[in-house]
Structure formats: structure tokens, C-alpha cells
């Protein structure tokens, strides 16, 4: 079960501007750069990303119905700012926690389980 629906609006105005200052440089925080489905505008969304054997697993703390997830799924690609690098990612697919358990650090796995985060976005590096 994702976090309550009112939190994204609060985070967009409060947490995200603060998180953008360090996300992309301090793991597991990263920034996903994506294009709007309708507007074509470029957006930068702070997220938690974990390296996987083929790319990255991204925790969907607000569930798979958020705008940035729908934008990435529609485009089939995005750029991930991670540890100061810009990494192009492709082939987004929604998966459940069981499929990414091995790539998550134990403490993060525990915290995300407490938060009832069950959905992840798996993407491949190009």
C-alpha cells in the first residue's frame, strides 16, 4: 500500500526542493529526468534507486499511478542522475517487492516493508 495521496502535493512543494540539493549525488537518492506525456516538458523527480544486475530498481513509495511513473512507462526511457552521473535507462517494467528483494539493502528492505511499498520500477541501463 503506497503512502497517502495528499503527501505528493506536500512533498512537491517542501521535500522535493530540498531533496534536489543532494539527490543524484548521495545514494540511494537519485533524480529521474523524464518528459511529460502531454506537455513534453522536462521534469526532475527525486527518488530512491538501487543498482540491480541490469540497471536499477526504483522504489515506488507513492505507487505506480504517479505522474512521473506514467511518464516513464509511456516514453519507455528516462535519465537517472546517480552518484553525479547521468545514466540513460530503458525498458521500464513494474514489478513487486519479491522480484527486487535481493538488490535492496536489508535496512532499506525493512523500512520499505514497514511503509508497505510493494511496487518497484525496474529499468535497464543502455
What key attributes describe this structure?
alpha+beta; six-stranded antiparallel β-barrel; 27% helix; globular; 6 strands; 126 residues
Give the secondary structure arrangement, pairings included.
Elements: H1 7-13, H2 15-19, E1 29-35, E2 42-51, E3 55-59, H3 67-75, E4 77-82, E5 85-96, H4 97-100, H5 106-114, E6 119-125
Task: Report on this structure.
The chain has 126 residues and is an alpha+beta fold. It has helices at 7-13, 15-19, 67-75, 97-100, 106-114, and strands spanning 29-35, 42-51, 55-59, 77-82, 85-96, 119-125. The chain has a six-stranded antiparallel barrel with strand order 1-2-3-6-5-4. The protein is globular. The N and C termini lie far apart (31 Å). The mean pLDDT is 87.
Task: Please give a quick description of this structure.
With 126 residues, this protein is of the alpha+beta class.
Low-confidence stretches: none
Oligomer classification: single chain
Largest sheet: 6 strands, antiparallel, barrel
Query: Which percent band covers the strand fraction?
Result: 35-45%
Helix proportion: 25-40%
Overall mean pLDDT: 87
Q: What radius of gyration results from the CA coordinates?
A: 13 Å
- What's the total helix number? 5
Q: Give the strand line-up of the largest sheet.
A: 1-2-3-6-5-4
Q: Give the N-terminus to C-terminus distance in angstroms.
A: 31 Å
Class by alpha and beta content: alpha+beta
> Which term fits the overall shape?
globular
Total DSSP E strands: 6
* N-to-C SSE string, H for helix and E for strand: HHEEEHEEHHE
